[in-house]
Amino acid sequence: MNGWTGNILRINLNDRTYKKESFDEEFALKWVGGRGFALKILWDELKPGIDPLGPENKLIVAVGPIAGIPAPNTGKTVVAAKSPLTGGYGDGNLGTRVTEQMRRAGYDVIIIEGKADKPTYIYIEDEKVEFLPADEVWGKGTYETHEWLYKKYGKGVGILSIGPGGENLNLYAMVRSLEGRAGGRPGIGAVMGSKKIKAIVVKGTKPIPVADPEGMRKLGLEDLRKVQQIDKETGWSLQGTTGVLAWCNEVAALPVRNMRKTHHPDAWKIDGERLNAARVATYGCPNCTMRCGITILDHEGRKSELDYENIGMLGSNLEIFELDQVASLNYLCDDYGLDTISAGGTLAFYADAIDHGAIQGDFKFGDAEKAKELLRLAAFREGKLGHLLADGSLRMAKQIGHGAEAYAMQVKGLEISAYNCKFIPGMALAFGTSPIGAHHKESWVITFEINQTPRDSYGPEKAAKVIELQRIRGGLFEFIVACRFPWIELGWDVKNYALYFNKITGLNWTVEDFWHVADRIYALMKFFWLREFPAWNRTMDYPPKVWFDPTNADPEGPIAGKVLELDKYDRLLDYYYEQRGWDKRGIPTKRKAEELGLIEEAREVEKIAKLE
Ligand code: PTT
Ligand code: SF4
Question: Measuring from atom 1 of ligand 1, which residue has the nearest CA?
């Protein structure tokens, strides 16, 4: 079977055993890799209702056929588990040397089950797996942990690690790698921490199986050069993802003050131009010729790599407009291993709740020093406030009451990333239907919507565009496992990925085949949610209430007086469900499940809910 190693490494922490298992071609073709593999394994192996932070949950590390092959931006890996933040399926995607090392070690998937009895790190080298003590770095930040491991194993190994956030079961703790890479927003770092695993180190020495190695090598290297050339011509990586900040401010889509506001006169102080001017280094993922990790010195003089989401959520959303202070908050999130989006969203919610008298406290928007202290409390779960903050905005809102839930800016428990959609219906739908909770990664429809459609329309074309992007972003790039930026930022045609896929596997797929796999994955993710939440209803695909509240409309600016309309959003959601072949509850129909080859899965779902 070319294109896949065909192997899964299963590690059991309860008795410190491991074994190599194989998967067959049917599994490979049906789920392809990355998110597809992770989801299917979690579906098959997790009992519904298990505690995500208990030993029954499984941590999955998965790559896909293109991962690690020299070709545009193939240094990404998926980390997944049942999410402790949302209770549903959770995953994330990060740049790491683990991608290539894991395939060279001979694995497409690593499953980690059970729980270690003391702080441990796992060292994997080809067939060998070692369980080693991590006491020396338990309690330490990710930067120190990585240095400690590099000293032992050299810089070339792949490392995934957690910080104090994951150790202390902060529900939005992430997995970290390299200088500034982080993945697994829905608390995948907390799952790793619950298993007492500080780090996973991987080294491999074998070739990656490719059907046409010479053809792929030639094509891959040529295309890496072409992508580099396009990046040079367009200048995209000068500002990278942060180029969008000024635009968001201009079109009233910036998160400001817990998303109460959509723009701010000081936004220019933290925009992509300012960031590029302050750059002291550029970081990036392996196999990338358009490196986008713009790195500056933070307020304390440490190197901190910033992307748009980091600045939007830790900067404008907290009304902090000093770039070096935003960089400090970002550095702390990286070192503690916390998701910047949920951390920023939760802190902003806290300040808003204080403003609204729902809770007492001395944190105000704009207070960077206090924000640093709060991040520490959240990472270490210090005191009552630390516990509240560590649980994310939805749980915090439920605990403090006073109607605060309406302005906890989240969907399904996951904080909304840095796009304020109080009057952007299509992007609100993208957040609402994102299958891991509110994440822009699934469907970033906002630029299409604002630049190419009437902003106030709720027509079926918007639902269609959300689905089209979900197939590419949440589907293709998550199961083939590659960074989507060459496509989205430089216009690199998705058809190229069919070329790579066929050279690697020896198959003859078209992009249509990719979309079919993507739809299968989306349908199974929905079944996963339904199995965990049998009382599922369509309101779980709604964005926060406050976006429908006329009293929350902007008093001035481009969208003055405008908010989303619930009846129209509902119609848009219907269009979305109809186009996906899902019923009015948002559940795939029996016919759709059959069409996607999910007959067994549908049968299991029918034990708890009748399918239409
Ligand atoms: C991703 C989410 C994002 S999405 C950002 S910035 W972005 C935040 N980054 C964080 C960070 O950094 N440190 C931290 N402690 N927390 C962070 N939380 C936030 O996490 C990232 C890039 C970016 S930068 C994006 S959009 C793209 N994401 C991709 C994706 O999801 N899939 C894919 N196939 N390709 C992608 N390419 C781009 O990768 P999550 P990374 Mg991250 C410091 O994983 O859970 O999806 O959260 O991956 O290697 O850091 O690269 O404006
Ligand atoms: Fe990583 Fe950025 Fe390159 Fe994508 S474009 S692979 S996120 S460095």
Answer: 183
